[in-house]
UniProtKB/TrEMBL annotation:
<feature type="transmembrane region" description="Helical">
    <location>
        <begin position="521"/>
        <end position="540"/>
    </location>
</feature>
<keyword id="KW-0732">Signal</keyword>
<feature type="transmembrane region" description="Helical">
    <location>
        <begin position="613"/>
        <end position="635"/>
    </location>
</feature>
<keyword id="KW-0812">Transmembrane</keyword>
<feature type="region of interest" description="Disordered">
    <location>
        <begin position="286"/>
        <end position="331"/>
    </location>
</feature>
<feature type="transmembrane region" description="Helical">
    <location>
        <begin position="560"/>
        <end position="584"/>
    </location>
</feature>
<keyword id="KW-0675">Receptor</keyword>
<keyword id="KW-0677">Repeat</keyword>
<feature type="signal peptide">
    <location>
        <begin position="1"/>
        <end position="23"/>
    </location>
</feature>
<feature type="transmembrane region" description="Helical">
    <location>
        <begin position="432"/>
        <end position="453"/>
    </location>
</feature>
<dbReference type="Pfam" id="PF00001">
    <property type="entry name" value="7tm_1"/>
</dbReference>
<dbReference type="InterPro" id="IPR017452">
    <property type="entry name" value="GPCR_Rhodpsn_7TM"/>
</dbReference>
<keyword id="KW-0433">Leucine-rich repeat</keyword>
<dbReference type="InterPro" id="IPR002131">
    <property type="entry name" value="Gphrmn_rcpt_fam"/>
</dbReference>
<feature type="transmembrane region" description="Helical">
    <location>
        <begin position="396"/>
        <end position="420"/>
    </location>
</feature>
<feature type="domain" description="G-protein coupled receptors family 1 profile">
    <location>
        <begin position="411"/>
        <end position="664"/>
    </location>
</feature>
<feature type="compositionally biased region" description="Polar residues">
    <location>
        <begin position="303"/>
        <end position="330"/>
    </location>
</feature>
Length: 734
C-alpha cells in the first residue's frame, strides 16, 4: 500500500543528501532520531542555522511525541515540513503563520486528527500576492475525524488517504480553496454529508476510491473535472451528469453508473427536461444576440482557452449559471491549475484571479455555444456481461418468457397437487415426479422474479441495477436458478435410470429400486444441488455479475472450475438419459420385429419411439446450446455475449421446466387416472368422471363375455405375453 510512498521518501532523502554534499545547508534531515520533541534547539544542536533552513525532514522517529510549532516561526524561510514514521505523534498543535510554507507532509504516523493549518498564511510576505500550499499529505495515519475549519487553506492538493475517517461532516472544507482532494483507502468512510464539500468552489479532482460511501453529494462539486470512485461497490446511486457541469473523466466501480452518464434522459428525466428547456432558451438568446456582438473584441486576460471552452459549452447544465456570470463569478475557477497528480508535490501552479470587471458576459455565455451533449469519459464501460439494456433486452423475449413462466408454474403446481393429494400407495415413479415438479417450479419462480424486475425497470434498468444485483432478491433468484437446474437434471437422470432398470429387469420383481433407496438417492441430489447453488453465495463466482443473476463471470481458477462442474454435470446427465432411452427402446422390441411384424405391435413401438425422441429432443434443445456456448466461453473464446446469451439462459434452458410436467406426468394415462380420481372425491364435475369411465372401459373379451370361446395359449407363449405386458405397463408412463 505504501510502496509508492516509500519510493518518494527515498527520492526525497537522495535529493536532500545531494544538496548537503554540495554544501547547501538549507535542508535538515533527521534520520532515525530518538528525539521526543522537535524544537529549534534540536535543529541547532544538529549544526544548522535556523535562518537558512528551507526544508525540514524527520524520518523514522519512533519516540517523537510533540512538535514545538512556535519554534517553526524562527525559520522564516521554511518551505516544507516532512515527518514520517512517527507512531507516537498523535497531535500537532495549530500551526502559526508561516508565509513561505508550501508543503506539509505527515505520513505513516500516529495522527488522530487533522492539524489546524488555517493560520499558516495569515501573514503574507511581500513577494507573494496569493500564497498557497502545494501539498498537504496526511496519508497512512489514524485520523478518525475532520474538525471544522482545520483545512481552511488554499492548497493545490490535499491527501487524506488510508486513514480511519468514518464521516465527512457538513462544511468540512468551508472557505477552503482546494484543487485536488483524495480520501482513497478510507475503508470505514461511509457517510458524506450533503454539504460536505459546500463552500469549496475550486475542487477539480476528487478521489473516493476504496471507501464505503453509499451516496455522493453534489453541492460544491460543480467545477469537478475528474472523479475517482473505484473499488467502491457500496456506492448505490450516481448523481445526474447535469449536476457536474465540467466533469471530463469518471473512474467508477459499476458499469451501470456509466450507463447513467450515457443516457441522462433515462437516468433523470426531470433534470433532463429542465436541461432541454434551458438549452432551447440559450439557443434562442444566442441566436438573437449574435449579430450584435460580432464586432466586439474578445477581451481575455490571463484566461486558459481550454477552460473557457469547457465553461461556455456547459453552463446550460446549471440553472443558476446566468446569474453567476452576470456578477462576474464565472471566472473564479482560474485560481488553480490541474497539472500533476496527487503525488507530484512540486508541480503546484496557481493562476492570478481574473479581472471580474471585463465586459465579456456575452462571450462567456455564447462565445463557443454548442448544442452537442456534454460527454464524459467514463470507466468501466458497459461490457458483454453488463450492457446498457433492460433485463430481457428484446421485446419478443420479454413476451416469450411469460409464456414459459405460465406453463412452468401452472403445469408443475398441477402435477404436485394431483400427486400429493392422491391417497393411493406412494410409488417410486410418483416420488421422483414430485421432486421433478418441485425443481421445475423453482425455475418458474426464478423466471417470474426476473420478469417482474424487467417490467418494473423497463427503459431505465441502470437506475435499479444496484438494488437488484447487489440485493437479496438477486441472490435468491440466482440460488433458485442453479438449485432448480441441478435438482431437475439429477431427478431426470434418476427417473430415466429407474425406468431403464425396471424394464430391463421386468420379470425380476425383487430387483426393483425400493422407495427407501430412491429417498436416499434424492437426499444426495438435494445436498449436491444446495451445495452448487450455495457456492456463489460463499464467494465462488457471483450472482451479482449480471442482471439475470447467473454465475457467468469467471475471474479466477475456482470460478472456472465451478462453472465447468455445472456444464460437466449437465453433459453427463444428458448422455446418460440418451443411452438409457436407447436401451429402453431396444428392450421393448426395436420396431416390432419381435411381434412378427404385426401392425398393432409396430404401431405401439412407433408411439413409444416418438415419445422417447420427444423427451431426448427436448433435453437436447434445452441443454446443448447452453453447454456449447458455455464451454467456448470457459475456453476463452466466447461466441455470444450476455445480450444474446439471455436467449439461451432465460428462454431455451428453462423450457424443460414447462415441458417436463407435460411429458413426464400430465400426458400420461396414470396422471389422467389420478386426476379423475381427485375430481371424483370432490363431488364436482360428475359428467367429466362418467365420460372418462366410459372412454376407459375396455371392449368385451372372453373373460367379460363367457359366450365367446377363449383361445388356448401355449405355456411358453403365455409367459412371453405376460412378460411383454409387464414391459408395456412399465413403458406406459412414457
Amino acid at each position: 500500500m505504501f510502496s509508492k510512498r516509500k519510493c518518494q521518501i527515498l527520492m526525497a532523502c537522495l535529493i536532500l543528501f545531494v544538496k548537503l554534499i554540495a554544501g547547501q545547508r538549507e535542508s535538515v534531515v533527521l534520520l532515525r532520531s530518538n528525539i521526543t520533541r522537535l524544537t529549534a534547539r534540536v535543529i541547532r544542536a544538529a549544526g544548522f542555522d535556523l535562518q537558512q533552513v528551507e526544508h525540514l525532514s524527520v524520518m523514522d522517529a519512533p519516540n517523537l511525541e510533540h512538535v514545538a510549532v512556535e519554534d517553526l516561526t524562527k525559520m522564516p524561510n521554511l518551505k516544507s515540513l516532512f515527518i514520517t514514521q512517527a507512531p507516537l505523534l498523535h497531535r500537532i498543535p495549530p500551526l502559526p503563520a508561516l508565509p513561505e510554507l508550501r508543503t506539509f507532509i505527515v505520513t505513516t504516523s500516529g495522527l488522530v486528527e487533522v492539524p489546524n493549518l488555517s493560520h499558516v498564511h495569515d501573514k503574507n510576505s511581500a513577494n507573494t500576492s496569493l500564497p498557497y500550499l502545494q501539498a498537504i499529505d496526511l496519508e497512512g495515519n489514524h485520523i478518525k475525524r475532520i474538525p471544522s475549519h482545520a483545512l481552511r487553506v488554499r492548497a493545490d492538493q490535499v491527501s487524506l488517504n488510508y486513514n480511519l475517517i468514518e464521516e465527512v461532516p457538513a462544511h468540512a472544507f468551508k472557505n477552503s480553496q482546494i484543487s485536488k482532494l483524495s480520501f482513497k483507502g478510507n475503508t470505514k468512510l461511509k457517510k458524506l454529508d450533503d454539504l460536505a464539500f459546500a463552500g469549496n468552489l475550486l475542487l477539480r479532482q476528487l478521489d473516493l476510491s476504496n471507501t464505503a460511501i453509499t451516496s455522493l453529494p453534489t453541492k460544491g462539486l460543480e467545477k469537478l473535472q475528474i472523479l475517482r470512485i473505484e473499488k467502491t461497490p457500496s456506492l448505490k446511486y450516481i448523481p445526474s451528469i447535469y449536476e457536474f457541469q465540467h466533469l471530463e473523466k469518471a473512474f467508477l466501480t459499476h458499469h451501470f453508473h456509466c450507463c447513467a452518464f450515457a443516457f441522462p434522459e433515462r437516468h433523470n428525466p426531470a433534470r433532463h427536461a429542465l436541461y432541454e428547456t434551458q438549452l432551447a432558451i440559450m439557443a434562442q438568446k444566442c441566436g438573437k444576440n449574435s449579430h450584435r456582438n460580432t464586432s466586439e473584441p474578445r477581451k481575455r486576460r490571463s484566461i486558459n482557452l481550454n477552460s473557457d471552452t469547457k465553461r461556455s459549452t456547459t453552463n446550460v447544465y446549471d440553472d443558476t449559471s446566468t446569474e453567476s456570470q452576470d456578477n462576474g463569478s464565472w471566472a473564479s475557477d482560474e485560481y488553480f491549475s490541474d497539472s500533476g497528480s496527487f503525488e507530484d508535490y512540486d508541480q503546484g501552479d496557481f493562476h492570478e484571479p481574473v479581472n471580474n470587471s471585463l465586459g465579456v458576459t456575452y462571450f462567456a455565455e455564447c462565445g463557443n455555444f454548442s448544442l452537442s451533449r456534454h460527454e464524459v469519459a467514463c470507466t468501466p464501460l458497459p461490457d458483454a456481461l453488463n450492457p446498457c439494456e433492460d433485463v430481457m433486452g428484446w421485446s419478443w423475449l420479454r413476451a416469450s418468457v411469460w409464456f414459459v413462466i405460465t406453463a412452468a408454474v401452472v403445469g408443475n403446481i398441477a402435477v404436485l397437487l394431483v400427486l400429493l393429494t392422491n391417497h393411493t400407495e406412494l410409488t417410486v415413479p410418483r416420488f421422483l415426479m414430485c421432486h421433478l415438479a418441485f425443481s421445475d417450479l423453482c425455475t418458474g419462480l426464478y423466471l417470474f422474479m426476473i420478469a417482474v424486475v424487467d417490467l418494473r425497470s423497463y427503459g431505465e434498468f441502470f437506475n435499479y441495477a444496484y438494488d437488484w444485483q447487489y440485493g437479496v432478491g438477486c441472490k435468491i433468484a440466482g440460488f433458485l436458478s442453479v438449485f432448480s437446474g441441478q435438482l431437475s437434471v439429477f431427478t431426470l437422470t434418476i427417473v430415466t435410470l429407474e425406468r431403464w432398470f425396471a424394464i430391463t429387469y421386468a420379470i425380476y420383481l425383487e430387483r426393483r429400486i425400493s422407495l427407501g433407496a430412491a429417498a436416499k438417492i434424492m437426499i444426495g441430489g438435494w445436498m449436491f444441488s444446495i451445495l452448487m447453488a450455495g457456492l456463489p453465495l460463499a464467494g465462488v463466482s457471483d450472482y451479482s455479475s449480471t442482471s439475470i443473476c447467473l454465475p457467468v463471470e469467471s475471474e479466477g481458477i475456482e470460478d472456472a472450475v465451478y462453472q465447468g462442474g455445472l456444464f460437466l454435470t449437465n453433459a453427463v446427465a444428458w448422455v446418460t438419459i440418451v443411452v438409457c432411452y436407447v436401451q429402453i427402446y431396444r428392450s421393448l422390441g426395436g420396431g416390432g420385429e419381435k411381434y412378427g411384424g404385426r401392425g398393432a405391435a409396430a404401431a405401439a413401438e412407433r408411439r413409444i419411439a416418438n415419445k422417447m425422441a420427444l423427451l431426448i429432443g427436448t433435453d437436447l434443445l434445452c441443454w446443448a446450446p447452453v453447454a456449447f456456448f458455455g464451454v467456448t466461453a470457459l475456453a476463452g473464446v466466447p461466441l455470444v455475449d450476455v445480450s444474446h446469451g439471455k436467449v439461451l439462459l432465460v428462454f431455451f434452458y428453462p423450457l424443460n421446466a414447462c415441458a417436463n410436467p407435460f411429458l413426464y406426468a400430465i400426458l400420461t394415462k396414470q396422471y389422467r387416472r389420478d386426476l379423475i380420481t381427485l375430481i371424483a372425491r370432490t363431488g364436482q364435475c360428475n359428467w367429466l368422471v362418467e365420460r372418462y369411465k366410459l372412454a376407459a372401459t375396455p371392449p368385451p373379451t372372453a373373460h367379460t363375455n363367457p359366450s365367446a370361446p377363449a383361445a388356448l395359449v401355449p405355456l411358453v407363449d403365455y409367459n412371453r405375453s405376460i412378460s411383454q405386458v409387464t414391459k408395456n405397463g412399465e413403458a406406459e408412463i412414457l
